[in-house]
Amino acid sequence: MEIKGKVPSQPIPTMNEAVSHLIESIASEEKALSRLLDTEAEHIRTFSEENLGRGVSSIEDIIKFNHSVIQFMDSVVMAEWMLLKKLDTVLQLELQGADGHYIAESRDRGEHNGGRRQVPDDLEDMRYAEWEEYDEW
Fold first, then answer.
1. What are the Cα distances from residue 108, in Å, to 15, 40, 71, 113, 121?
2. Cβ–Cβ under 8 Å, residues 98 and 15
């Protein structure tokens, strides 16, 4: 359906296509973060060689530089956390069937409950359940 002056609609992707696109976007973001980390490492190396080896920099300059590196790394850690959450969501989509029920993996671990994944009763159990899933990787 086209509305005058609007962009024509795209076909709705299948679940596999959507998951594939999400994984590709995660990989692309990871590659970009890798390049940023390489650039920052080179920046640190250059600062160290030019300033610290000769004793040229003042303590204030070193502290400023260190603070900028910490801010950069904080940003990278936050971006990595967001990518982890995105990946976790993709994994949940992969495990979930089209009808909203979770597929056979829960059955293999003895957690089958009428086709649905069992939900822990309280928050503490949820934390442990999540870590157990990560341990299996």
1. 23, 45, 44, 12, 21
2. yes
Q: Rounded to an integer, what is the distance from CA 19 to the centroid of its chain?
A: 14
Q: What is the DSSP letter of 52?
A: I
DSSP state letters, 84-128: HHHHHHHHHHHHB-TTS-B-THHHHTT-EETTEE---SSHHHHHH
Q: Is 0.85 surpassed by the pTM of this model?
A: no
Are 61 and 101 in contact by the 8 Å Cβ rule? The answer is: no
What does the pLDDT look like over 107-132, one tens digit per residue? Answer: 445 444 444 444 444 444 544 455 45
Q: Which of these, 75, 66, 19, 18, lies nearest to 43 by C-alpha position?
A: 66
